[in-house]
Amino acid sequence: MNPELEGFIQDLTIAVLTTVVLLALAVWSGVRRKRSAHYALVTLTFIALGIAIFVARRLSPYMSYDETGLWIQRIHFTFVGVTVLLVPVVVVSGAKLGKALMLADRGEEGHDAARHRASHRKVAWWTVAVLVITCVLGTAMTVAGLPA
Question: What is the pLDDT of residues 111-136, one digit of tens each?
Fold first, then answer.
């Protein structure tokens, strides 16, 4: 196998695993209501995801797909699109929750943090699920498209 290709595969593996670990820590910090850690971990997760996408794009010229690989690729890109649509929704719901919690911390009325928390929890879990499925499909696509 081409040494450059091996390097890209290693980099992609590290980037995807880092993204998944940071995602798990972001979920943990959110569930535990560790706001400062959650904000930092969510930011780091998106940075790691961006790096993984960058590395995957650099790997793509080396890929060659049979019919199965192309089928996986189409599904993967569909999930990528859904993820892209969910990210702004989860960010906005998180910002609304953060604002409500800030108002609650100040003792102000009308913040409705419970409603915002429930809404953010639903959107966040959907985003996490779709992102994990996207990672699994991307991994399957990569394995299916690697030269023999």
Answer: 899 999 999 999 999 999 999 999 99
Do 34 and 73 belong together in one domain? no
Q: Are residues 93 and 45 in the same domain?
A: no
In the chain, how many domains are there? 2
Residues 55 and 103 in one domain: no
List pLDDT tens digits, range 76-95. Answer: 999 999 999 999 999 999 99
Q: Would you call 130 helix, strand, or coil by DSSP?
A: helix
Is 56:5 a contact under the CB 8 Å cutoff? no
| 33: alpha, beta or left? (left if phi > 0; alpha if psi -120 to 50) | left
Reduce the secondary structure of 65-81 to three states and give it as a string: CCHHHHHHHHHHHHHHH
Domain carrying residue 14: 1-62
Question: How many angstroms separate the CA atoms of 73 and 80, rounded?
Answer: 10
Do 98 and 142 touch, CB atoms closer than 8 A? no
Burial of 26 (0-12, 13-18, 19+ CB in 10 A): buried
